[in-house]
Amino acid sequence: DAGVIQSPRHEVTEMGQEVTLRCKPISGHNSLFWYRQTMMRGLELLIYFNNNVPIDDSGMPEDRFSAKMPNASFSTLKIQPSEPRDSAVYFCASNVGYSYNEQFFGPGTRLTVL
Amino acid sequence: SQQGEEDPQALSIQEGENATMNCSYKTSINNLQWYRQNSGRGLVHLILIRSNEREKHSGRLRVTLDTSKKSSSLLITASRAADTASYFCATDLQGAQKLVFGQGTRLTINP
Predict the structure, then answer these.
(1) Dihedral angle at the C-alpha atoms of B77, B79, B85, B87, nearest 10 degrees?
(2) Would you say A92 and A75 are in contact if contact means Cβ atoms under 8 Å apart?
C-alpha cells in the first residue's frame, strides 16, 4: 500500500491567495483527519470525516478554512484567503473503525504564507 | 491545557542507554498511544495500550499505563542513533471520538 498521500508537499503563497491541500487516504479506511502542526500550538485536529461525512469540525480556526470529502478516496482542505499565521505543516491521517484507533499519517504539506 | 502532556520536553542521551518519556493526561480514556515523528516527516504509530492494560511491549519499546495516576511512560531500551526523533502521546477523550496529542518529547541519541 502507498500509505496516505498528500499534495503538494510544499506550498509557498502570498497573503490573500487561495490554498488547496489534497489528501488520498489509505484504501479501505473510513475515517480521515486533517491536523495542523506548529511550534507554538503543537498538533491540532482541524476536522475529521467518517464515511465521507464531517463529524467534528470544532478545530477549524475560522470561516477561511473549509474541508470536503467528495468520495472515500479524496479530501481537500482549502484556505481562502490565506494569512501569514496559517503557515504550518498540515497533515492528513486515516484509519479504520473508531476515530481513536491507530491513525496513519501522510508526509504532510508545509505551507508558507508570505 | 493539553489533554496529554509529555515530560521531559527534550532528552539527550548516549547511544546504548535507555530513554524514558512520560505522559500525563486529565480525563478518562479508552486507550493511550505513542507516536514517533522524524524531522520533516509524518507521525508513525508505535504502540497502543488500552485502559484495562498496565504494560505492553513491542521490540525495544515498553509502555506502562497507570490510570489511577493518569500517566503513562515509554521506555526505549538500548537506544540507537536512529531513535532520534520526537515522541508524542495521544489520548482519546471518552465520548469525544477523537485523539488529542501532547506537545512531544524531543529525543536525541548521541553516538
Answers:
(1) 10
(2) yes
The amino acid that residue B93 corresponds to is L
The contacts of residue B91 (CB under 8 Å, 6+ apart) are: B3, B4, B23, B25, B29, B31, B32, B33, B99, B100
Q: Side chain identity at B100, as an amino acid letter? A: V
Q: What angle do CA B76, B37, A45 make, to 5 degrees?
A: 125
- Asked if residue A100 has pLDDT above 90, the reply is no
Nearest CA in chain A to B97: A99
Above 90 in pLDDT, residue B30?
A: no
pLDDT at B96: 67
With an 8 Å Cβ cutoff, are B42 and A102 in contact? no
- CB proximity B77 to A under 8 Å: no
Asked if B78 is an interface residue toward chain A (Cβ–Cβ < 8 A), one would say no
Which residue in chain A is spatially nearest to B86 when comparing CA positions?
A42
| A75 at interface of B, judged by CB pairs closer than 8 A | no
> Is residue B1 very low, low, confident or very high in pLDDT (cuts 50, 70, 90)?
very low
In this predicted model, what pLDDT tens digit does every residue of A30-68 receive, in sequence order? Answer: 999 999 999 998 999 999 999 999 998 999 988 999 999
